[in-house]
Amino acid sequence: MSVVRTGTMRLPAADPPAASPLPLLRGTRARRGVVGADEEMTAQIAYGQPYSLLPYTAQDGYSRTRTERDLPVVVLENEVLTATFLPAYGGRLWSLVHRPSGRELLHRNPILQPANLALRDAWLAGGVEWNVGATGHWPLTCSPLHAVRLTRADGTPMLRMYEFERMRRLVVRIDAWLPAESPVMFVEVTLHNLAAEPVPAYWWSNIAVPEAAGVRVLAPATRAYHYDYTAVLRPEDFPMRDGRDRSYTDTATKAADYFFEIPAGERRWIAAVDSSGSGLVQVSTDRLRGRKLFHWGTGSGGRRWQEWLSGPSSRYLEIQAGLARTQLEHVPIPGGATWSWVEAYGLLEVDPAAAHGPWDKAVRAATAAVDRLIPREALLPSGPSHAPEVLSRGSGWGALEVADALPELDFGEIGDEQRPWRELLETGRLPECDPPAAPVTDGPWRDLLERHPADWHARYHLGLVRYADGDREGAERAWRESLERRRTPWALRCLAESARLAGSGSGADLLVEAHALAPAVVALTVETLRALLADGRAAEALALIDRLRPDDRALGLIQMIEAEAALAAGDLDRAGALIEQGITVHNLREGEGSLDELWFRYQELRHPDTDPDQVRREHPLPATYDFRMR
After folding, report:
1. How many angstroms separate the CA atoms of 402 and 149, rounded?
2. Which one of 12, 262, 490, 516 has the largest count of C-beta atoms within 10 Å of its C-beta?
3. CB-CB contact of 182 with 96 (8 Å)
């Protein structure tokens, strides 16, 4: 018995995150010139870091208000496993249940709560997340994919999910199937580079599993690179350091990344087993080279993050698999090339004495168990399939841009976002829209916009495509030409953001004008306030906050900035009223230290005659403000 069916899953969930109208001019936050990397890593870390995240805009429109919701799912099931996918959230594998034992093999999040950990902001914890594009959680992690049901040549039903990833302009396809009585689920990932030139490729399968006392992470390696979240990759023996076995994460106080150095010729696998020696294993063909362990640590910041993402008593760690050895790297996929690999997921069972014995014995026993569960020769491609049945729809960008190149993938019809660009293709004119049409990038669009009669909307978009190509000066000229034809908040904001990213000023005056033209765009309010603070204009920032709509002023992010501005202006009472009552910032960025810095700065100003270290001891950071990663 093997089935693919649709259904719903009910759980407390926030509204789906909405996209901002503000394009993402910044690139990734990955470090360059990382210390400790070998020659290959150094080259691949320097290669492919995107200049910007265009054509995407931020996906920051969500809250921490959750209600019971029915979410559409696709379920794969056989006699051994039940796999539940969320096609509306990047195709995430939400749950994998071992049916004979009733055991959930993944961290199945009891809530669906976006948080600010992805390239575009919104991200979810739990399950298996597929990541393509650039260092970080991919742009479509909270966006829908196309999903169809197929039948393989051997009669096995299969789920296929796919989408056009617009930053790298790669088509990603994820095929998942469960043969009858198979103890593992197979996933084949395919990346199509339709361009004539090489494209930087990035992929990581991020697998969240429950964390508890006695859980051990195993991989066939005795060395790992430890990343400290700054600029140091430290090659170390694994798992022992300073008398502690780091393959057990429940005793680690700090968050950490460990990228395993798996020797050539060894099978590519990683597993997390409990005290009984059993747990989830992921194994793949050799193209998926890297393996990683991530844990939050047992410190107060790590505990707070896990509660923030999954609610109370929902500890998890991640075991991951990627194209490169670390997540700071990109590898070139040649022009016109198609890359694919096969992964398998299932319940690994190892003799507990061996699984929790010396590292070399544990790895040998786990490797033998992997070979029994899924022999190397069983990791075969999905093969021919037929009779696609549409289960859900992704975006219309593939229909607009690449459908002719891949006729075997049904990208459906274009939608409202793509319609202005279809008109440009058909008529040579881009209709004026306010707010502007969704951004595009790439040479053919630039050519059309370079030839377009000058109006504010076409020049605005010309600036964006030039900026995406790394032509900052050309982009700024286009935005100034746009403003000559019409003063819009969109071109003003882009000029300000370009200046900030180039280190040539905060752009505060431009943003103040932009905000006056679009006061209801919260993201623009936030950028304006931060620019005013960067310019030392705290009083102006407070005056702007006083003019905001009550709903905007009540947002936690605005309240945090208000408290910062009040401290900068010397108004301790105003700052204290906010800080003491509690500020909840719904989209606090991972690794951001704003809340703890705000708390301690406030306490130090309240006690100016006391040593700062003593102030910190006497006024410790509240747990609700502790998101410290280090």
Report:
1. 21
2. 490
3. no
